[in-house]
């Protein structure tokens, strides 16, 4: 059953890769059939019919459309009854809308962006979810009204090539109107529904009418943008253009192809071809894409980047990071996009027919063979740049060096093949921009071991398909034969293009084979003896006692390439959860964190680092994680701990009282732990029973004599009988000691643990240890302030009022008796909606399962 389900999931993943690519390819084939009669001279003049006045007019309509779009969010914020400054709402709406329109998967992308932006203003996850849903409803209110009205009552005259009966469109129109009427009925009757005990009401009828007005104005304005770009737009009615536009946009959204690219254009060409020449429609579509999608996308991306830089700078400054000047979350990503764009430039210029005069000029200077070779190498370099973009995104030093070499070579080849100074200038400027940024690309990792995600694969495939389509489209009037590929000459454009296609595919095949032959990921398996021996060796030289948890042998291990550092982790749901900071050689930690992150992504998981210190926060931020404070760890400086004076009065009393009652403290060496197995097991079982709990996992030890025999045991005895015990973790260089598993005989008062703590601290002081860790106090140190992040407010509220579930305050107060130093501890986890799932996965992993989480 499990195997069958796994097979179904894998098939669905393949479909998720192939579906957008297949739809895009089908759209290009259809476009080819629609535009096959066009000549190159017509394409050069395709924009001539659009006047400056028309461009100005559509820019105004575009501006007004995005202003109206922002009222989607204004109404949504009003609906949830939360005040946010109007300018903040407009900016947040513009960023999320302009970017999601181009990327595709609108609900997910706009939802994620809205979550990221609105969470800064104190909105809860539920409130942001309501905003996203409300905006989606507003969109469909507009679709239902405009689409329902025009499809039902407007006589749509279809081209002869479309054999769909008009009645089908009328049925769709009626269904859309019924959906609209149902929505208004629910708003009038104030219906509500529940999601996990949260009651969600439909908007009031006045807000619903405002939704209708706003969404209708939005579509009217977008329709105006497209209508006034059409040449001689008096030849066709505005209503027809609006209807066709609505149908094309809906099909484009359903296709999930980013921005509906190709799909939208195909529908528009079909529906408008009876009224306009194909080249006029093509010009309108290109300018519409540029004005309504691309320009707002650039502005939205700049605004989002500016917002993220400000937020990250505040976070790093507030955390007193010395590395703030060295950290940038966006420089590698920006250059990855630029390199990808440079690859597109090389490929698309190879698809376009070159200027024959330029080739003839170059042929008088250099041999024809060098021109032909330069053309072939340019296409291969273009594909290589598409692939290298991922390496730059992941900060790999080899990708940086190779990108510089390839960019410079590409610029030279652009001159040699046909004196294409525009292409050469783009590549050379990218080279100059990348050159001084060596310090951002620090990872010593193999390029062949890098993960190519679904989005990477789809993006590269779409570019390659577009390159091939453009080439065949612009050379569609050429005569093809078996000898075409091997023809060489100044005028042999089609031959050069075909060789470029072969060269591009060759690079993809070679990279694919190397990827298959290489090691694509780290093994996912519990550690073997060799791994354990290596991990133990690194634990013994580490000043971090948390590494001792690896001796439970219940965690997976991942080592760096030199096997000088490791991460121990567990998998729960889709979360790959690292326990504590990485252990080992500090110089290798940066690359190890990246390796772990990429391995998790390779298996469609996301990365979480649980209970980490401040040491490696910049690295967690580098891989895109968000830091949330989850509590503070109490550490006692042993050189200052003693039983003298007023400060040690209570401790002196506890020790004297216990020893007077016949108790004494002892440290049993690890090699003698097995001799006391039955005694220890009895105490542990009795303690679990009286506490009505089960063994926790992952973040703390559980009773296993093989595990306990790795450590000294701190015990309290009455005569020769053990009444309480704890295993002692010791760090290298006598930096720190702490205890892990703590148990006492319920028949004896639990005051034995106070006695054990005090005596163990004194033992540690005598043996030269610097600190004794009392462990973390969950949620302590979180401040409930007006400008505090949402999680901090929630955590502070739980800490303040959650005594019924856990004695948060009592634990903090108990540890405060020892006058400790408090150090913050964090969880690093993905942003957006993944956070809730990741926190749930951590809780399940620690508790040992759903039943244990709910019932202790």
Task: Summarize the structure in words.
This protein is α+β, with helices and mostly antiparallel strands. The chain is built from 29 helices and 14 strands. The strands form 2 sheets. Strands 3, 4, 5, 6, 7, 8, 9, 10, 11, 12, 13 and 14 form a 12-stranded mixed β-sheet that branches. A hairpin with a 5-residue loop joins strand 3 and strand 4. Helix 3 runs antiparallel to helix 8. The N terminus and C terminus are likely disordered.
Shape: globular
Assign a percent range to the helix content: 55-70%
- The tally of beta strands, per DSSP, is 14
Q: Largest sheet, described in full?
A: 12 strands, mixed
What is the CA-CA span between the terminal residues?
31 Å
Poorly predicted tracts of residues: 1-16, 315-328, 784-788, 795-807, 851-856
Quote the average pLDDT: 76
Strand content: 5-15%
Annotation field: number of helices: 29
Secondary-structure-based class equals: alpha+beta
- Radius of gyration, in angstroms, nearest whole number: 33 Å
Task: Describe the secondary-structure layout.
Blueprint: H1 2-35, H2 40-44, H3 52-79, H4 86-103, H5 106-118, H6 125-153, H7 166-188, E1 192-195, E2 198-201, H8 205-227, H9 238-255, H10 263-272, H11 278-318, H12 331-351, H13 356-363, H14 368-393, H15 397-418, H16 421-434, H17 454-474, H18 493-517, H19 529-540, E3 556-559, E4 565-572, E5 575-579, E6 583-584, H20 589-602, E7 606-612, H21 617-622, E8 626-637, H22 649-660, E9 663-668, H23 677-691, H24 705-708, E10 713-718, E11 721-730, E12 736-744, H25 752-766, E13 771-778, H26 790-801, H27 808-816, E14 821-829, H28 834-847, H29 850-854
Parallel strand pairs: 5-7, 12-13
Antiparallel strand pairs: 1-2, 3-4, 4-5, 4-6, 7-14, 8-13, 8-14, 9-10, 10-11, 11-12
Helix pairs in contact: 1-10, 1-17, 3-4, 3-6, 3-8, 4-5, 4-11, 5-6, 6-7, 6-8, 6-9, 8-9, 9-10, 10-11, 12-14, 12-16, 12-17, 14-15, 14-18, 15-16, 17-18, 22-25
């Amino acid at each position: 059953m499990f195997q069958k389900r796994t097979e179904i999931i894998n098939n669905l993943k393949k479909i998720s890769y192939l579906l957008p690519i297949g739809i895009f390819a089908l759209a290009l084939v259809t476009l080819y059939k629609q535009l096959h009669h066009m000549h190159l001279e017509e394409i050069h003049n395709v924009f001539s019919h659009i006047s400056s006045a028309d461009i100005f007019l559509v820019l105004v309509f575009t501006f007004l459309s995005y202003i109206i779009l922002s009222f989607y969010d204004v109404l949504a914020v009003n609906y949830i009854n939360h005040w946010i400054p109007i300018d903040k709402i407009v900016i947040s709406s513009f960023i999320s809308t302009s970017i999601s329109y181009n990327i595709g998967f609108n609900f997910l992308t706009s939802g994620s962006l809205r979550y990221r932006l609105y969470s800064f203003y104190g909105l809860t996850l539920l409130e942001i979810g309501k905003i996203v849903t409300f905006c989606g409803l507003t969109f469909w209110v507009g679709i239902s009204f405009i689409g329902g009205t025009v499809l039902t009552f407007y006589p749509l005259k279809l081209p002869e090539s479309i054999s769909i009966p008009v009645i089908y469109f009328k049925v769709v129109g009626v269904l859309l109107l019924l959906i609209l009427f149902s929505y208004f009925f629910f708003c009038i009757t104030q219906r509500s529904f529940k999601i996990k005990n949260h009651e969600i009401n439909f908007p009031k009828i006045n807000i619903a009418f405002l939704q209708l007005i706003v969404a209708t104005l939005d579509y009217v304005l977008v329709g105006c943008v497209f209508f006034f770009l059409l040449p001689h737009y008096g030849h066709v009615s505005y209503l027809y253009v609006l209807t066709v536009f609505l149908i094309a946009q809906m099909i484009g959204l359903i296709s999930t192809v980013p921005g509906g690219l190709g799909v939208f254009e195909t529908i528009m060409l079909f529906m408008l071809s009876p009224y306009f020449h194909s080249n006029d429609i093509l010009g309108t579509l290109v300018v519409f894409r540029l004005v309504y999608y691309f320009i707002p996308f650039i502005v939205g991306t700049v605004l989002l980047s500016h917002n993220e830089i400000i937020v990250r700078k505040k976070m790093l400054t507030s955390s007193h990071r010395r590395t703030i000047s060295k950290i940038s979350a966006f420089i590698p990503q920006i250059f990855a996009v630029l390199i990808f764009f440079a690859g597109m430039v090389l490929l698309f210029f190879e698809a376009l027919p070159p200027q024959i005069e330029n080739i003839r000029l170059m042929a008088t200077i250099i041999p024809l063979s060098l021109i032909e070779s330069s053309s072939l190498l340019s296409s291969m370099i273009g594909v290589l740049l598409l692939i290298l973009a991922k390496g730059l995104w992941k900060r790999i030093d080899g990708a940086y060096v190779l990108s510089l070499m390839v960019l410079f070579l590409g610029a030279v080849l652009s001159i040699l093949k046909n004196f294409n100074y525009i292409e050469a200038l783009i590549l050379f400027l990218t080279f100059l921009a990348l050159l001084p940024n060596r310090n951002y690309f620090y990872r010593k990792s193999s390029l062949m071991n890098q993960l190519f995600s679904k989005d990477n694969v789809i993006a590269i495939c779409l570019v390659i398909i577009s390159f091939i389509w453009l080439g065949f489209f612009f050379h569609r009037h050429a005569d093809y034969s078996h000898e075409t590929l091997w023809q060489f000459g100044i005028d042999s454009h089609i031959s050069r293009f075909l060789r470029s296609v072969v060269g591009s595919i060759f690079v993809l095949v070679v990279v694919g084979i190397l990827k298959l032959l290489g090691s694509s990921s780290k093994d996912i398996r519990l550690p073997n003896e060799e791994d354990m021996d290596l991990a133990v060796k690194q634990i013994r030289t580490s000043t971090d006692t948390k590494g001792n948890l690896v001796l439970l042998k219940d965690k997976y291990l991942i080592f760096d390439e030199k096997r000088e550092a490791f991460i121990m982790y567990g998998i729960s749901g889709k979360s790959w959860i690292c326990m504590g900071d990485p252990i080992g050689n500090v110089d290798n930690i940066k690359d190890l964190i990246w390796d772990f992150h990429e391995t998790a992504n390779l298996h469609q998981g996301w990365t979480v680092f649980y209970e980490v210190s401040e040491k490696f926060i910049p690295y967690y931020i580098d891989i895109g994680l968000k830091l949330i404070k989850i509590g503070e760890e109490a550490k006692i400086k042993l050189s200052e701990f003693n039983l003298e004076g007023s400060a040690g009065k209570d401790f002196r009393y506890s020790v004297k009282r216990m020893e007077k009652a016949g108790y004494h403290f002892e440290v049993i060496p690890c090699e003698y732990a097995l001799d006391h197995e039955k005694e220890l097991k009895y105490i542990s079982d009795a303690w679990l029973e009286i506490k009505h709990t089960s063994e926790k996992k992952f973040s703390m030890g559980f009773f296993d004599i093989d595990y306990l025999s790795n450590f000294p045991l701190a015990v309290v005895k009455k005569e020769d009988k053990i009444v309480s015990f704890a295993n002692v973790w010791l760090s290298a260089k006598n930096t720190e000691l702490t205890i892990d598993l703590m148990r006492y005989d319920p028949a004896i008062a639990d005051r034995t643990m106070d006695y054990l703590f005090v005596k163990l601290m004194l033992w540690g002081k005598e043996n030269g240890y610097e600190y004794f860790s009392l462990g973390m106090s969950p949620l302590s140190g979180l401040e409930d302030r007006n400008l505090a992040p949402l999680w901090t407010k929630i955590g502070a509220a739980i800490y303040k009022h959650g005594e019924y579930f856990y004695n948060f305050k009592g634990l903090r107060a108990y540890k405060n008796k020892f006058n400790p130093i408090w150090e913050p501890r964090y969880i690093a986890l993905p942003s957006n909606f993944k956070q809730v799932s990741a926190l749930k996965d951590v809780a399940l992993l620690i508790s040992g399962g759903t039943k244990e989480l709910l019932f202790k």
